[in-house]
Amino acid sequence: MTKVYLPQVQENRQAGHDIDPVFLNRWSPRSYKTDAVPDEVLFSLFEAARWAPSGSNEQPWRFIFARTQEDRERFYPFIAEGNRAWCEKAPVLVLVLSKTISSRETHLRSHAFDAGAAWGYLALEATRQGLVTHAMGGFDPEKAREVLSIPAEYELHAVIAVGYQGEKEALSEAFQEREKPSSRRPLEETVFEGVFKEK
């Protein structure tokens, strides 16, 4: 089977071991077209996230999405100004949160770990569907909690821009310089056999 890599990925990324191209093709652009994402495509992302693994099958992740102008404008006040400069063109914004209390009414230690797995599944399915995603930690969780009426037992993790990739030239000059897939540390800096080893 022929492996297909996006042109900008070929220029900036190379795997050290054989993996599916979807892992390299997934990156975090900032330029978005305003084209709407069809329901069947958008909900396939959440369907993929639904099948992520979780501790004791608690499935603590939750997603609040905004795709109408009214709903997106509800999100904007709690997103950091630097992110708003580019993300307002994205047709869909998604807030990722997770329930911190288990079904047994105890603290769910793996809630954030599990939500991260669900976000990863969502991001990979988005790539498979021809979409791009960009997760943002730059937002005010408490303001988001208030605006979106989120109960205290949920922790807020990130806002994700979702849509079709736009032209780099549509961004400000500062963002254009950063509009390329990033590389990764070599495995020997993150994978250790037997005991921890700081490089």
Task: Describe the structure in your own words.
The chain is an alpha+beta fold and 199 residues long. It has a domain at 46-166: NADH Oxidase (3-Layer(aba) Sandwich). It has eight helices and four strands; from the N terminus they run H-H-H-E-H-H-E-H-E-H-E-H. It has helices at residues 7-12, 22-25, 39-50, 69-75, 81-87, 111-128, 141-147, 173-178, and strands spanning 61-66, 92-99, 132-136, 154-163. Strands 1-2-4-3 form a four-stranded antiparallel beta sheet, with helices on both faces. Helix 3 packs antiparallel against helix 6 (111-128). The longest helix is centred in the middle third of the chain and has 18 residues, at 111-128. 28% of the residues are buried. The model has no long low-confidence stretch (mean pLDDT 96). It comes from Brevibacillus invocatus. One of its GO terms (molecular function) is oxidoreductase activity. It holds the Pfam family Nitroreductase. This is Nitroreductase family protein. Belongs to the nitroreductase family.
